[in-house]
Amino acid sequence: MTVGLTTLLLSAPMSASAADEVNIYSYRQPYLLEPLLEAFTTKTGIETNVVFAKSGLAERLEREGRNSPADVVMTVDISRLNELVERGLTAPLETDVLSEDIPEQYRHPEGKWYGLTTRARLIFASKERVERGEITTYEQLADDKWEGRICTRSGKHPYNIALISSMIAHHGEAETEEWLQGVKDNLARKPQGGDRDQIKAVAEGVCDLAIGNSYYYGNMLQDENQRPAAEAVNVVFPNADGRGAHVNISGMALTNSAPNRDNAIKFMEFLTTPEAQRIYAKVNFEYPVNPAVQPSELVASWGDLNADELSLQTIAENREAAVKMVDRVNYDN
User: Fold this and answer.
1) What homologous superfamily does CATH list for 119-246+312-328?
2) What is the percent of the chain with per-residue pLDDT over 90, rounded to a whole number?
3) Residues that bind Fe cation, according to the entry (predicted)?
4) Of 71, 107, 116, residue with least CA distance to 89
5) Sign of the CA dihedral 202, 329, 331, 155?
6) Residue list, annotated binding site for Fe cation
7) Domain segments of the chain: what residues?
8) Residues marked as binding?
9) What top-level class would CATH report for the domain 2-118+248-300?
């Protein structure tokens, strides 16, 4: 297995085709993929070659065109998957295995991308200052009682844009904009940092509520330096008694160039098997996209996730409206 560790390796050559290999471009960090890749090669004998980057993979695919050696792209967030589709870089793919293992809302209507794991956008509430059950929905984040008590990262971050996009789908633009203005009015400070920083801010008393992705909480619990902050909050699964919590995905797509198409399909189908789903979900505290596979023991201990069944494609289609809305309410300033 060959793993490119930095964006500098984006210029490194990768062979276009071989009988027993598959070439992967990945936005996901190498340590998250290595257990999966090893299991796949052990099971199939197909070697994996990986280029990792924090950005620029779509641009590289465009430059390489039909000569690209990439077979599969692996990434996080529906916006990045949709970007690949909009640029015409992914090929439609439908197989019985993928259709059976991945629920409809977590795959492109034409098979141009597939979800692999889900991560819920949760509310983290101070154990000291917020009673259990005091907040239960995203909509309540705009209530006046939370004025000066909420922390979030930038409204323009893809994870928040996806949440806002889901609100647009459920409530329409006018009502969602009123809600977003209400959330902004309730902020304890200017949006800053990442999701972990919001949980830390709750622990430090800067705010009482934070919005963040579920897997960050899991990662914090495994870090002895960050564990005290994570243990200072309760996990709230928003809208659990209604439509369910908004979820985003990590996912994969078959490239148009795919010189090792058959091996790529074998790899993609392997990633949806119970074996791979357990590995992938456990290593980063995410939820398996395959409904037949349960989350890890740690993730399950947080409570039951009732996931919103809204199509991720609908969320992608609302992205532009969500970005403009963040600007109109001047959320980050």
Assistant:
1) Periplasmic binding protein-like II (3.40.190.10)
2) 91
3) 215-216
4) 71
5) positive
6) 215-216
7) 2-118+248-300, 119-246+312-328
8) 215-216
9) alpha beta
